[in-house]
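Teaching assistant here, posting this on the class forum so everyone can see the example we discussed in section. The complex has two components, and the goal was to see what a joint structure prediction looks like when all of them are supplied at once.
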Amino acid sequence: MRNALNIVLGGEAGQGLVTVGHLLAKSLVRGGYSICVTQSYQSRIRGGHNTFAIRVSPDDVQAPCEAIDVLAGLDAPTVTLHESELSPDGMVIVDEAVKADCAKCVPVPFRELATGIYVNTAALGVVAQVLGLDLAVVRQVMLEAFGKKVETVAENEKALEAATKWAAENVAATRPLPPAPARSARLMMTGNDALAFGAASAGLRFCAFYPMTPSTSIPTTLAGWGESLGIVVEQAEDEIAAINMALGASYAGAPSLVTTSGGGFALMVEGVSLAGMTETPVVIVVGQRPGPATGLPTRTEQADLEFVLHAGHGEFPRAIFAPGSVEECFHLSRRAFELAERCQSPVFLLTDQFLADSYRAVEPFAIEGLPQVRPWEEAPAVKGPYRRYAITSDGVSPRLLPGGSEHLVVVDSDEHDEVGHITEDLTLRKAMVEKRLRKLEGMRGEVVPPEHTGDGDPELLLVCWGSTKGSVVEAAEMLRADARRVGVLHFSQVWPLVPEQFMGLLHKAREVVSVEGNAFGQFARLLRRETGFEVHRQVLRYDGLPHTPESVVRGSRG
Amino acid sequence: MGPGGRTATAETPRTAEANRAVVSIEDYGTYETAWCPGCGNFPLLKAVKEALAASGLAPHQVLFVSGIGQAAKAPHYLNANLFNGLHGRAVPAATGAKLANRELTVIVESGDGCNYGEGGNHFLAALRRNIDLTMLVHDNRIYGLTKGQPSPTTDRGFVAKTQPAGTASDSFNPLAVAIAMHCGFVARGYVGMAAHLADLIRQGIAHRGLALIDILQPCVTFNKVNTHAWYRERCYELPDDYDPTDWHAAMDKSLEWGERIPVGVLYRAESAAEYVPAAVEGGGSSPELIGYAALTC
């Protein structure tokens, strides 16, 4: 395992757990550390048991892990539920009022150190002291978060000071972090933040959504930026409305986005088909969570790949990106908008709850001068009807906007002629099918190749897609300790597949093991369907939690 | 442009004066249709073209958004921009288009099944949202394209092949619902009163905010009850002394159906807040404006 500590904060919903976790994560990132946050919460507003886990390292860290080094709990279940997950020298910081009875427990008199909501700040102080953090950084981060109300600031400062002083005097077994390298300022963001950021930088103008975990934080973030960036964020009456609004807005010239999860996406499916038929660009974020139906609304899974791949009646081109990190969320979000506009098609960003909510430290993106998509062309001066669906060699027809010139822009969900009017000319129908499908060739030409890391001539090749990347890469490092050559092949674009990009490696590897967060092995099935290649073994997880390096290693060793 | 509403006036000139002189009904063209001879869609299409010409709107300034059904084909038979989307989903597509380009005059044109059945939730949301759309609902009280099933506005007891014992549900009253929700322009037209209908549509287009015009028309093939003769006997123009700004009177009037059917503007709100969110065209759009500060550690 890496030179990293795993800190887990636990408590009831409504206790301020996420606030404390966020402040601690921010303090760590500002201190030069890398983090990987896993938020595990129940589908309720108050009570229950939630955790905010921060894996922290002076080196790069892109995966969660199972063994807990520092467990901090404001309630009893935190101790009883997670005590067994403690690493050999793990410790538990727990409110003495909880009366937890365990060998590794350090009871803290939180109620003496602070009152009311400021107990959270006291917990932050104790953990910061145990980790040996620069307390000036923690204080500064806290002031920035609460700095508006004078009274609040004073109470928070008091609680933080009392807690760190108490911990310095009373906690013998500390877990100081190794020193972090000096770094210039970085960003701390979740996968959803990065998707929103990428979309805005690509020229997003319209986002429609119906609230659904884990996707809602994207429109929430965009709404905060909306006015200054000229982005309309519209909460629709349902997901059907959301995607139809996005298509209407896109048709009228606004690069458009919808965000949802499996159940909401099920309602959008007819709209996906409409985007295919009308050749209207739209980017669709599907943040996966475990189904079927309502499933586990706040947990993670990768079980909607086949659904998204096949959603929508009829045949039309689409592309599906599956980012493996927060950085990839940013870059692939941009790419999705560019591709959607260029190929006038629906393009998907397939993430999941784990990545959507996972805070990481990232280098600032070079956003200066990044191009924005421009969804129209200059109107030709020629008279005569504009042909929205002019049959072209690459299938892409020149696009004008309604009202942008005297040319009329006609689009139709019925089969249509080149102008866009309804037709039942069956010869024309065949030509239009072929025109639409020719765009798939253009898409194939710019598929993001899967990323191959680790040994070039692997005895064991781990194949994965989307958010499992960090855990699989780290598992490969651990498996190399078995004196095997181990490679990783990660797909950040899962459709279309271009076999020439990866078949050589698949054939070269002695054993190919696929790692996925679902029960069917959906990507392995897709691989077999498209290439005839059958993976030798599958490591599948579908208990609502993300793959960890440990779970991948256990499965890979068989 | 910032968020918030603005006060609507009863009628706002929508286009440059220059257009008024040059736009004529011929600009909107004449096309062969897929409708039955005698269909109520023919006079309705003509009324729409007259209203557009009377509004001084050139074809490229107008966007029709329609769903699916014989009514939803209507915009294919005139010159204008057109988004012919899915059954029931014309309203949200129109909403998106209008939010993306506020200069467009956006008209939703579809039937009673499309707008009140499949699109029922969108209809309710549109009434609440009050975006500047004109809804033209071809209301023939039947599903025509699928050959004669009852629609949301079909009267209880109507016998159809799919409902041989008679339709068991009460009919939906779109005007009463719209008035109950204070929609700023609620009207009923009848295709047998052509000039009156064209003027209703012109007024609806001029209204800032959502305008609902429910348009009675026969289905000569599948609705043998609500025929031209049936409507002619019953439809009457609202008298000059009818006050469409009196909400309670309008509510009462919207319930009148059967022996006598009122036609005209049933309700008009003098000042309804039109929905205007942060504008697509507004603001600087450079990514540098995005809150790096909020994300920087």
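For the discussion questions: DSSP finds ten helices and eight strands in chain B. Chain B touches chain A through 57 residues (CB under 8 Å). Think about how each of these relates to the inputs above.
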